[in-house]
Specification:
heterodimer, A: mainly alpha, two-stranded antiparallel ribbon, 7% strand
Chain lengths: 257, 140
């Protein structure tokens, strides 16, 4: 593990913080490129992106209350601890939900009927992939359960190897990014469908990846993150199916299939 | 390539409980934006002060009554839950302005986002792990 990437004049640059910032930068850059490619007007991109960013940061912290229980209530609910960089961001699942809600409210406030937020889908996959590399290098985040597999990693203080689950997460996200880029112009993957599809894919992956992680089990052998992923996946899945049906109907009215 | 630009499909006018301000000049937008930015900072300085005082007061009460069986256990959690009031007020106000004076909401969001960006930049040399105080249990 490499918790400190390098030092500048004696000041440590932490892997986790560095890759988190890099994740947001790279995701942001891809979002800008994709928004330009789609000719998404900046009057919509800026407020929706800002709302999604703030919603995501808030969601990341608030969801910790659900995952880790009342003991974390102070850090999960007190707005002013959200800006304390020593604590760290929180849960990516909460961030995804918060960003979606923030972006949705902003879209409605602007008066948009259909969602032009598909530009977010590849950007989110890229950002999550990059961020997970930092989580792995930091050697935290409850890396994973013990394993005999050849790619298991040994953490300092442990005498056995564990699953490098942040790397599984990163690998999935980079592969998912490629798939989303391939699908981005598909006619059924427009008007918000690509974003919903992207989210759904990650939620399904995350549900299974959790079996290899060491998060707190809440009930019936499942972690809070699994309940959260499952609930969100069902909601997003139903929403996606309905939206895809609507998209197909409207396309077939214009262009006979 | 699918274009999502061009004429934006807008929702048909609906009767709402909020009256939406129609911006006619750039100056109006700019003024509301800065009201949002400065208003967000002032509001949160005030809320931070008030919530700190309220938290200390409720904590003192909770500690003084922790062994009193006649006082509900609910009061033990009250200080913690009181600390979520600034977050709730922020969310409600930004949502309210998003549907009434959009540029005020945008200014507040910009200030909110800038504070997060500063925390993320500082995190490069300060964030050792995610949700550090509980990282032994795993959190994300």
């Amino acid at each position: 593990m490499v918790p400190v990437l390098f030092t500048i004049a004696g000041v440590p640059v932490y892997s986790y913080g560095f890759f988190f910032a890099l994740a947001l930068l790279s995701g942001g850059a891809l979002l800008v490129a994709e928004a330009r490619r789609r000719r998404w007007p900046k009057e919509e991109v800026i407020p929706i992106t800002l709302a999604a960013f703030v919603g995501g940061m808030v969601g990341a912290r608030v969801s910790i209350l659900f995952f880790n229980g009342l003991a974390t209530a102070r850090e999960s609910l007190d707005l002013y601890t959200f800006f304390d960089p020593r604590i760290g961001p929180g849960s990516i699942l909460g961030a995804v939900a918060g960003a979606y809600i923030g972006g949705y409210i902003a879209s409605k406030a602007i008066g948009k009927d259909s969602c032009a937020c598909d530009a977010f889908a590849p950007a989110m996959a890229l950002a999550m992939g990059v961020g997970r590399v930092g989580a792995f290098l930091a050697g935290v985040d409850g890396l994973g359960k013990p394993t005999d597999l050849p790619w298991g990693v040994t953490l300092p203080g442990l005498e056995y190897a564990v699953h490098p689950t942040p790397l599984y997460d990163a690998a999935f996200n980079f592969m998912w990014l490629a798939i989303l880029l391939l699908l981005r112009d598909h006619r059924r993957m427009q008007s918000g469908n690509l974003l919903k599809f992207g989210l759904l894919g990650y939620l399904v992956f995350r549900f299974f990846n959790e079996f290899l992680r060491t998060n707190r089990v809440i009930a019936i052998g499942l972690t809070g993150q699994q309940f959260f992923s499952l609930g969100l996946a069902i909601g997003v899945g139903v929403y996606l199916l309905r939206a895809m049906r609507r998209t197909t109907e409207s396309v077939s009215r214009i262009l006979p299939i | 390539m699918i274009e999502q630009g061009g004429p934006t499909p807008v929702l048909p006018a609906r009767r709402t409980i909020f009256k939406r301000k129609i911006y006619e000049t750039k100056k109006e937008k700019s003024r509301d934006f800065w009201i949002g930015v400065i208003g967000w900072v002032i509001l949160n300085v005030v809320l931070w002060g008030l919530s700190t005082v309220l938290y200390a007061f409720l904590l003192q009460y909770a500690v003084s009554t922790q062994f009193d069986p006649s006082v509900s256990e609910f009061f033990a959690y009250l200080p913690t839950f009181s600390s979520c009031l600034p977050l709730l007020i922020n969310i409600l106000l930004i949502t309210f302005f998003a549907f009434t004076r959009r540029w005020i909401a945008l200014g507040a969001l910009a200030a909110f986002g800038a504070a997060f960006v500063l925390a993320i930049i500082a995190g490069i040399v300060l964030t050792v792990a995610c949700f550090l105080i509980f990282n032994s249990a795993g959190s994300v």
